[in-house]
Amino acid sequence: MHRPMMHLASVDSAALRDATKAVKDELDVPDGYPPGAEAEAAAAVDRCSAERRDATSIPLVTIDPPGSRDLDQALDIERHRGGYRVHYAIADVAALIEPGGALDKESQRRGETWYGPDMRIPLHPAVLSEGAASLLPGKERLAVLWTIDLDAEGDRTSTHVERARVRSREQLDYQQAQHRIDSGARSHGSRPDDPLGLLAEVGRLRLEQERARGGVSLPLPDQTIHTDGDAWTLRYGTSRPAEQWNAQLSLLTGMAAAEIMLDGGTGILRTLPAADEHATRRVRRAAHALGIDWPTTTPYPEFVRGLDPARPEDAAMLIACTRLLRGAGYEPFTAAPRDTTARVHSAVASTYAHVTAPLRRLVDRYGAECCLAHAGGREVPDWVLEALPDLPGIMRGSSQRAATFGNAMVDLVEAALLAPAVGREFPGVVLEASDKDPRTGTIMIREPAIEARITAEQDLPVGADVRARLVEADAMARRVEFALA
After folding, report:
1. Strand positions, DSSP E, 68-173
2. What is d(CA 450, CA 427) in angstroms, rounded to the nearest whole number?
3. CA of 101: how far to CAs of 32, 328, 372, in Å?
4. pLDDT per residue of the chain (485 residues) written in tens, 0 to 9
């Protein structure tokens, strides 16, 4: 379960090392790569050189979290015919992996990159994900290059996708990009309009397009576990506008990819059903628990847009809103569906596909390959067609295991941080009671803003303000429990 801000002292990591190992063993977390996969990654060459154009003159730049080495995306934006032209280069992982080979099989076993405290378990070996395939600055790299034209309002007017050779000019993190935009500092090139300034323009326009569609993006605060020597702490950071604008380019490309695949008759969509009433009521109770006003007349997307992730209670609310995103999946098809209504991603409010993070997510490799085939008037490769039916299951299993791993890491550190507070009372709101036993359920504590199990001697007062006593905080068992005071 995801947690918001923790305002307690750090905890010595020595007692948690065994617990971390136990989690890794329990979830069969990948450790190293088979020799054959490592060898193939080290020897990878471009399998698609004949269809690749030279696009190294495009002044691309990457924007990622600080310290990133697995760079999936690079962008450039320019004014074009009264609107904008977006160049979005995505690492061409498929061109470096032999279908059916040892590396291909290992990446299918992993499904995606896993994240934990002070660790990252990558989908591909570092020699590929942080080397030959990564869009590092100053290096000529292989890319799937999307060229998307927008009108003055940010509406997409045309899309072109092709294989290319590219060279990023600069690697920025979100703070650096935001500073450049806010200060008006130029990044690269001699064009009259700076690409980063145009990112802000296009990003704002696309957010307005999202609002008009009825879509919503959650500017989720970034909760991570940091280590400083032997001390582990939970930290909570907020996203900057530049991060949201950059994310809009990824969404733009994903919607364009879905359209190409649907027109071509073969592909794989990312889907999300609309939230049910029970989930919505639960999230409304979370708003009450955090003291946030949510008028019944305010639609969910507008409520989310009014939240400020820099405020701890709003950050906690955004985490609670992720409950409305449950049920996401993938739907492959080899004949274009007549009705795409049931295949819409409800948060995007459009048909949508994953194609922009192939270094960290397996399915993107296959979606991009479908788009390239359709755009080039070619048949979708057999190795893609053979894999499509199994991809939803692979991604579902991988996502569940990766989320369980990440959440377990947060659980054990959180329990360790709370351990000194056993016996204390905390204010909170009961979010829900169990259908089987209404004396047990879930509480949201206001400070620190967490969700945990609660028990009572009588039926829990769902939705009520209560005081709860912390009765257990066991890091080794990764368990926190309260009792109604």
Report:
1. 73-80, 83-91, 114-116, 119-121, 140-150, 156-173
2. 11
3. 17, 29, 22
4. 344 444 444 555 666 677 777 888 888 888 899 999 999 999 999 999 999 999 999 999 999 998 899 999 999 999 999 999 999 999 999 999 999 999 999 999 999 998 875 678 999 999 999 999 999 999 999 999 999 999 999 999 999 999 999 999 999 999 999 999 999 866 555 566 899 999 999 999 999 999 999 999 988 766 566 666 666 666 656 678 999 999 999 999 999 999 999 999 999 999 999 988 888 988 998 898 888 999 999 999 999 999 987 776 787 788 789 888 889 999 999 987 777 777 899 999 999 999 999 999 999 999 999 999 999 999 999 999 999 999 999 999 999 999 888 888 878 877 888 888 999 999 988 888 898 999 999 998 877 767 899 999 999 998 888 999 999 999 888 899 999 98
pTM (2 d.p.): 0.88
DSSP class of 214: T
What's the order of all strands across the beta sheet hosting 231-237? 11-12, 231-237, 222-228
- Name which of 159, 161, 133 is nearest 145 in CA terms: 161
Task: Measure the CA–CA gap between 146 and 90, rounded to whole angstroms.
Answer: 8
> Distance (Å, rounded) from C-alpha 2 to C-alpha 8?
17
Q: How far is the C-alpha of 27 from the C-alpha of 115, rounded, in Å?
A: 13
92 vs 134: CA distance, rounded Å: 9
How far CA 6 is from CA of 116, 349, 413, in Å, comes to 17, 33, 10
Q: How would you label 193-210 residue by residue, b for 16+ Cβ within 10 Å and e otherwise?
A: ebbbbbbbbbbebbbebb
Contact 372, 390 (CB under 8 A): no
Residue 3: what residue type? R
